[in-house]
Specification:
Strand content: 15-25%
Largest sheet: 2 strands, antiparallel
Helix content: 10-25%
Length: 99
């Protein structure tokens, strides 16, 4: 019975070997991913490991292209470090893109 359990474990482990976030051995991460501890992560979009292992984004930020950025609601734009509504904000009236 013990041998059957070990065989099942090996089959399941092999099936998960290429999955994002799967447990891996050193240097076996798919292209574009990095190893953080025992798992492979995508540093371009992982909020807990943005750009590098253990570099977490703050609350209200998303990881985009390996950097933490404010997540603005639809219709808002990021001006400096805050999201504003360019149709109602007096300072940034009519702002577009990155202000």
């Amino acid at each position: 019975m013990l041998r059957l359990s070990a065989a099942v474990f090996l089959v399941v482990s092999a099936a998960l070997a290429g999955c994002e976030g799967s447990v891996t051995t050193p240097s076996t991460c798919p292209t574009g991913m990095i190893q953080c501890g025992a798992v492979c992560i995508d540093p371009q979009g992982d909020e807990a490991n943005c750009g590098a292992c253990n570099t977490a984004c703050s609350r209200g930020e998303v990881c985009t292209g390996g950097t933490c950025q404010a997540s603005c609601l639809a219709g808002q734009v990021l001006c400096g470090d805050k999201c504003v509504d360019p149709t109602t904000d007096r300072t940034f009236c009519g702002a577009q893109g990155d202000c």
